[in-house]
Design a protein that fits this description.
By secondary structure, the chain is of the alpha+beta class. It folds into 2 domains: about 180 residues, PUA domain-like (Roll); about 110 residues, no CATH class. Helix content is about 35%, strand content about 20%. Strands 1, 4, 5, 6, 7, 8, 9 and 10 form an 8-stranded mixed beta sheet that branches. It has a two-stranded antiparallel ribbon with strand order 2-3. The longest helix is centred in the middle third of the chain and has 37 residues. It is elongated. The termini are far apart.
């Protein structure tokens, strides 16, 4: 029964993530879904969550301001804190059994109050009772390796270890970018800062200074909530934003008098020129003027 419920839970979470634009409302996780006449909840009061009808935990949950801070290890895996300090607490024992049986779990991360990001399947790789932690790998379910004490078995094992580190590091990056998206879109009340489009599934969190560059941290003042069309136009320097929060369209785009393919050029691009950028309600969330100035200089150089 556990395996059937777990599979149904994975499918349900996948559907909810797609439906809600990359995250799942926490209240939906607490409500769960019906499975063969029984309600299966995905989260609960504790970070390690096991629905009553299951034998082993279904999910683990963390939040950036929680009592048990989780973080990425140096070798690329996630550390997840025990519940409390007793290694033999039933929740910790449940994860330990899941580790030995290679049972997949769902990892939920609270990006903002009421909104969670999800990664699945995740696996408990190692128990560290001396540190009151478990080692977790994310999304590393495609490798099967031999435990035989042979050179070939060791080679496959080492490749699998490398893959799991890479997959977990990539997943943590997705979670951080997902958290950035949730916070930026929330700051802009889930609408495009250029055209006010409110369809969440068509909105992105655009970086003013690109990720990986100096000043490119995933913080709200380095972000703009943009629809996918305007995100692409901003990234390609078709549209810029000056430090006075004015939208500026590249001159060669303004000079086009006709477009035979439809109205997007006129209404989606040209008529944006000179418009005021929609700003968040909290001044602390407004785009950083220094970052805008740097980016706008790049826009002018590309014009």
């Amino acid at each position: 029964m556990d395996e059937l419920i777990r599979t149904a839970a994975f499918q349900w979470v996948e559907k909810q993530v797609a439906l809600h634009g990359g995250f799942v409302p926490r209240k939906l996780l607490d409500q769960g879904f019906e499975f063969q006449g029984t309600r299966i909840t995905l989260t609960g009061p504790q970070g390690i969550w096991k629905p009553a009808v299951m034998e082993l935990p279904l999910s683990i949950y963390s939040r950036p301001d929680g009592p048990y801070p989780d973080f990425l290890m140096e070798d690329g895996f996630l550390l997840y804190r025990y519940r409390g300090t007793d290694p033999n607490h039933k929740d910790n024992v449940g994860l330990r059994i899941a580790m030995h049986q290679r049972v997949p779990l769902i990892y939920f991360y609270r990006a903002k109050e009421g909104k969670c990001l999800a990664e699945w399947p995740v696996y408990i790789e190692e128990d560290q009772p001396e540190n009151l932690t478990f080692v977790v790998s994310v999304g590393a379910h495609n490798f099967i390796y031999s435990h035989q004490e042979t050179d070939q078995g060791q080679l496959v094992f080492e490749k699998e270890q490398l893959y799991r580190r890479y997959a977990t590091t990539e997943a943590i990056h997705r979670l951080h970018q997902g958290e950035f998206r949730v916070r930026v879109l929330s700051a802009y009340q889930e609408q495009c800062a250029f055209c006010r489009l409110r369809h969440l599934e068509l909105l992105d969190a655009a970086h003013i200074i690109p990720d990986g560059e100096d000043g490119g941290e995933p913080v709200v003042p380095n972000g703009l909530s943009l629809c996918k069309i305007h995100h692409a136009a901003f990234d390609r320097n078709i549209i810029g934003v000056n430090p006075d929060y004015k939208i500026i369209v590249r001159k060669d785009i303004l000079d086009i008098l006709e477009e035979i393919d439809g109205p997007m050029l006129k209404y989606g691009l040209q008529e944006m020129h000179g418009q005021d950028l929609l700003l968040p309600g909290r001044r602390n969330d407004w785009p950083d003027r220094e970052r805008l100035d740097l980016r706008f200089n790049q826009f002018k150089e590309a014009s």
